[in-house]
Structure formats: structure tokens, C-alpha cells
Amino acid sequence: MLYLNRKPGEAVIVNASIEIRVVEVRGKTVKLGFSFPPEASVLRAEVFEAIKQANQAAVDAARALPSGVALPERD
Fold it and tell me: With contact defined as beta carbons under 8 Å apart, do 25 and 8 qualify?
């Protein structure tokens, strides 16, 4: 993990297309601003983990189906 010190108004650039800027620091709270291309996916870590767990549960349930049971096709 990379750790950086930034002051309000300062930013970092990731992959030349994502900007993360420190907007405000108030006590132990930091407000960040993000600029990124529309195709980028940005999720809070807890939301990402919940989606990941739900996807894994779906895979596990599909694997538990008896052989010969067809799953519906996706559009």
C-alpha cells in the first residue's frame, strides 16, 4: 500500500486519468474529490466486498446444482 501526505488542495494522479484531490481536512475526517473517466468504476470498499461476496455465493449455488440442470442465459 502506498501512503502519501497531501494538504488541502493537493492531488495525486493515477494512470494519467484519475485525479484524487484533498478537498478538506476537519479533525480526523478527510474529504476527497475524485475526477475519473466515465468508464471507471468507483465503489466504497464495503460495497465492493458485499458485491464480491454475493457474486461468490451465486457461483457456489450454481456449482451445487445437480448436473444436467440448465441455468438461464443472460442477455
Answer: yes
Task: Give φ, ψ of 35 to 5 degrees.
Answer: -120, 125
What the block records as the C-alpha cell of 59 is 457461483
Residue 54 has pLDDT above 90, yes or no: yes
* Nearest-angstrom CA–CA distance, 32 and 8: 9
Per-residue pLDDT at 71: 67
For residue 39, give the amino acid letter. Answer: E
Least Cα distance to 36 among 68, 13, 65 occurs for 13
Taking the C-alpha atoms of residue 49 and residue 46, their distance in angstroms, rounded to an integer, is 5
Distance of alpha carbon 71 from alpha carbon 75, whole angstroms: 13
